[in-house]
């Protein structure tokens, strides 16, 4: 039941019913509506300003996932680039040198990269910077891999009908060196341990206990097997095709002059004879009479990672040779 209010009218000296004018009622009503509108606007502003929407939260989550995936893909791309660089280097410095072929110039690879179109599947991402970056890197890898595949097909053609030549080319280490710890001095200028002067070191020194087997690194014929002044007990193998290898400072020689040997056959044992300061095998590779770095002729022994490690070991070995 609605409560009725009264007021005392001093003019009529009577209590009369209190009646609110329509104008006052309208003012009160519109005032309430205005207050509600202003309060609602403030609440909506604060909500939008400080409380993220579910769609924004989802978008932020997807963005963070996208960045994480991009970082992961980027690291994999860099890893693939490193591996491909190793293959390209090995192709130029090992495989093609074996067949007396000119290395592939980097400009040829770069030219193909420029011509290669971006991968369609990746560019579906659109103008997103992550997608474009990954697309460019994958495009570069794809072009290099395509070119490298073509190069290896060329190497395969060189291999055909050259079984005898491949068997003759020095392709393994002269002593067992699975852990890659036996190379003590590399190819290049070294301080001679006896004369104390800088002298060209035309091979690699493999340290090993006296009596360690020494293996022929390719098929060939023994042309020298005996004692030399500085070389000590040494063996020279003529592999044909312009290749020759020499093994020095043996404690004892097994091979004999004129004997034909196979790759991996024992030709003698590590010693310390001749001008040597410790048991080791000094190993040289000659191509057409010129000494070359033997480290590039171990491709039958090593995978790409081991080859890269051996390159670093040989280049950072002792500044002194053992002979």
Any overview of this molecule?
With 323 residues, the protein is an alpha+beta fold. The chain has three domains: 6-50; 60-160; 183-315, Glucose Permease (Domain IIA) (Distorted Sandwich). The protein contains seven helices and 14 strands. Strands 3, 6, 7, 8, 9, 10, 11, 12, 13 and 14 form a ten-stranded antiparallel beta sheet that branches. A two-stranded antiparallel ribbon has the order 1-2. A two-stranded antiparallel sheet has the order 4-5. Helix 2 (54-98) runs parallel beside helix 5. The longest helix has 45 residues, at 54-98. It is rod-shaped and about 150 Å long.
Helices and strands in order, then pairings?
Layout: E1 6-9, E2 14-17, H1 22-50, H2 54-98, H3 106-115, H4 120-123, H5 129-159, H6 163-168, E3 183-185, E4 188-191, E5 198-201, E6 204-207, E7 213-215, E8 220-228, E9 232-240, E10 243-253, E11 260-261, E12 266-270, E13 280-287, E14 290-292, H7 304-315
Antiparallel strand pairs: 1-2, 3-6, 4-5, 6-13, 7-12, 8-9, 8-11, 9-10, 10-12, 10-13, 13-14
Helix pairs in contact: 2-5, 3-5
Query: How does the helix and strand content classify structurally?
Result: alpha+beta
CATH architecture of the largest domain: Distorted Sandwich
Q: What is the tally of beta strands?
A: 14
By CATH, the superfamily of the largest domain comes out as: Glucose Permease (Domain IIA)
Taking the alpha carbons of the first and last residues, their distance comes to 121 Å
CATH fold description of the largest domain = Glucose Permease (Domain IIA)
């Amino acid at each position: 039941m609605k409560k009725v209010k009264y007021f005392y009218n001093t003019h009529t000296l009577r209590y009369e019913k209190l009646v609110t004018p329509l104008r006052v009622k309208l003012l009160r009503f519109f005032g309430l509506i205005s207050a509600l509108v202003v309060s609602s606007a403030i609440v909506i502003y604060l909500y939008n300003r400080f409380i993220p929407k579910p769609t924004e939260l989802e978008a932020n989550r997807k963005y963070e996932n996208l960045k994480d995936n991009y970082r992961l893909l980027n690291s994999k791309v860099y890893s693939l680039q490193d591996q491909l660089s190793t293959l390209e280097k090995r192709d130029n410095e090992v495989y093609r040198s074996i067949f007396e072929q000119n290395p592939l110039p980097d400009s040829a690879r770069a030219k193909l990269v420029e011509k290669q179109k971006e991968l369609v599947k990746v560019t579906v991402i659109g103008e997103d910077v992550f997608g474009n970056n990954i697309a460019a890197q994958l495009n570069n890898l794809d072009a290099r891999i395509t070119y490298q595949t073509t190069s290896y097909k060329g190497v395969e053609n060189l291999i055909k009908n050259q079984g005898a030549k491949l068997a003759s080319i020095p392709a393994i280490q002269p002593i067992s060196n699975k852990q890659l710890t036996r190379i003590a001095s590399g190819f290049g200028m070294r301080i001679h341990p006896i004369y104390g002067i800088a002298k060209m070191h035309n091979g690699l020194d493999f340290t090993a206990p006296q009596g360690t087997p020494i293996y022929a690194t390719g098929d060939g014929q023994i042309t020298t097997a005996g004692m030399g002044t500085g070389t000590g007990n040494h063996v020279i193998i003529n592999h044909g095709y312009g290749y020759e290898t020499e093994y020095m400072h043996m404690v004892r020689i097994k091979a004999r002059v004129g004997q034909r040997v196979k790759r991996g056959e024992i030709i003698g044992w590590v010693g310390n004879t001749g001008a040597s300061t410790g048991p080791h095998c000094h190993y040289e590779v000659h191509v057409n009479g010129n000494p070359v770095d033997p480290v590039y002729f171990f491709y039958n022994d090593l995978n790409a990672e081991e080859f890269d490690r051996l390159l670093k070991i040989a280049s950072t070995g002792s500044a002194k040779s053992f002979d």
